[in-house]
């Protein structure tokens, strides 16, 4: 009697055989047919096993169907399936029954180290079983080493949000098996159980697993994700492999990035925005609506500073105490930001005055003592930095800082102050971040995600403080606002922001009673305008103006309607009555030169009137005051004309207007000119002496007494003016100089001696 082992290794029932030969060919053919059928049956069984295996992998489809369609579209179909562990596991010496199903929404999840990420999945278990997610424990293909980190999380439902800043530590936000009770089993390559918890695994396999927690934040790297039943093989090199896997994916964490530019704009205070909005909750959109892009901040308004960085949001989330990640579009208490700056996370922010006075302390932002109303933190989606597809929360934050007295600075801000802003990630080359719990309190402040060779990076900006003002375009010295009749607008420039905080009331008296106009200031690009309600009013109409901020009176002024607000008291010459052609005798005054000056405006004006004859030969200046809509004549009786006979151009000018004229100067008929040519006849023989009909001059016949003078200069002669046609003195002759006494040819001995003496002196000289 013999027995055979079955081909699949199972024992077969024994049967009895005889030593007699087989009964011929029929028996042999039957045995061959049986064997061929048995082989065919084995092929069918193998094929059936393959089909069942494929079908088992597809069962995850219904389980993964709970993943949102948007994630399926972004990362492909959910990958995963069911695992049903047999009664006897490979290498196990005991029977365990665990049924887990699951799937991931993406083949790969990309996020930023230090920020919250969301892993979308399906993870279900049956009975008392628990589904787990393995994070890390994988080998790296580029180096051949392990990632140096492993964590096992209890998971249920459709997603798990992980704070990557604290995963693997005692403050992790997820249900890590390092801090909650889990049913884990770690075996070696021989199937022997070596640990039943992460802490036991760290003690058994201290190399490269990272199962005992991190001394620094999780590094930017690729980490394996696997939904499993909690049984693993711990390799000697530190890799952790799940024995059974329902679904598998990868988590790729990128290095945090930093934007080296700070956004600066200014906005209205919170009370103004609250008055203009139905909802009293401020948003970043409200700040922009009531603000403007400029770095000159009006005192009392708020300066808004925007910073963008990744890698800090996990720490901010933890410090905020919120159970859910921080969301963009929300606000954050400034104390949370202050904690981040003080916690040694390598994040710094400084706002400091750059132009303090001599022996004065520079004013700085005192965030630690700031009230919540003085500094508000707004969270927003970043615009400059690339983020991962599973990053959660914002990547940009804004500080809205009040500049009013008693605000969040060490001293009150004043117009003219200038400030610099610096936002930085601290780092010292050769140093690396460690948790304070590690006991290394001597290390310098270090950003957790700086490498050993990284240093400090920063972004800077500036802003200044300016006074709060309205400057009207057209006013008089007595503060009267001028309004043109054709449009009735009051205009000007301002440092206030576009807001509904200012309104004006204009009141004028009419025959039917007071006429009142209430209007709001329209502010845009540093200018303002308002409708006074005086359009069409007659020039000269007066009204009163009052400016309010809310119900508080800010300004009160008179208003005057004018034709031209640019020149409300313009002085013009009335050309029809202003002299433009005048003839005078030499030595006379300009009493007949008249300047008719008209004030075409609605205000009294005082301007300088100037007369200029022959480019400065005669200049007369005086101030003239003319009432509104009045005309005044100015003459020049005190101005004598001491010019040679001839024609001269002159100009009258006042308040930018001018008139040109011609001045004709004629010789004085009562004056005779004498020269020094040697004889009385010769001295009077020029065209300056009058000639009678016989051809004899007055000088030859000893006519009327003339005036002579000796100026004492060598080679100079005296000239005289005589009655006649007023001819000019020849160019070669010097101007006449008059002596204090007269000399005539008809004088007796005394005169003759004097003439001779003059001649003799001339001869000897």
Explain what the structure shows:
There is one protein chain. By secondary structure, this protein is α+β, with helices and mostly antiparallel strands. The protein folds into 5 domains: 64-254, no CATH class; 263-466, no CATH class; 482-562, Immunoglobulin-like (Sandwich); 571-666, Sandwich (Immunoglobulin-like); 672-765, no CATH class. 14% of the residues lie in helices and 33% in strands. It has 10 helices and 40 strands. Strands 15-14-17-21-20-18 form a 6-stranded antiparallel sheet. A hairpin with a 2-residue loop joins strand 29 and strand 30 (527-531). Helix 7 (313-320) packs across helix 8. The longest helix is centred in the N-terminal third of the chain and has 35 residues, at 24-58. Residues 1-32, 52-78, 83-97 and 679-765 have low confidence and may be disordered.
Main sheet?
6 strands, antiparallel
Q: Mean pLDDT score, rounded?
A: 78
Overall, the morphology is elongated
Helix content: 10-25%
**Segments where pLDDT lies below 50 for 5+ residues?**
1-32, 52-78, 83-97, 679-765
Strand order of the largest sheet: 15-14-17-21-20-18
Provide the domain count.
5
N-to-C CA distance = 182 Å
Topology overview:
Blueprint: H1 24-58, H2 60-64, H3 69-75, E1 79-84, E2 99-104, E3 108-112, E4 116-125, E5 132-136, E6 150-154, E7 157-163, E8 185-187, E9 193-195, H4 198-204, E10 222-228, E11 231-234, E12 240-242, E13 245-254, E14 263-267, H5 270-276, H6 284-289, E15 291-292, E16 296-298, E17 302-308, H7 313-320, E18 331-332, H8 334-342, E19 347-353, E20 375-380, E21 396-402, E22 418-425, E23 457-466, E24 470-472, E25 481-484, E26 489-494, E27 502-510, E28 513-520, E29 522-524, E30 527-531, E31 542-549, E32 552-562, E33 571-573, E34 581-585, E35 589-599, E36 605-613, E37 618-626, E38 631-640, E39 646-654, E40 657-666, H9 680-683, H10 749-764
Parallel strand pairs: 3-13, 8-11, 16-23, 25-32, 34-40
Antiparallel strand pairs: 1-2, 2-4, 4-7, 5-6, 5-10, 8-9, 10-13, 11-12, 14-15, 14-17, 17-21, 18-20, 19-22, 20-21, 22-23, 24-26, 26-30, 27-28, 27-31, 29-30, 31-32, 33-35, 35-38, 36-37, 36-39, 39-40
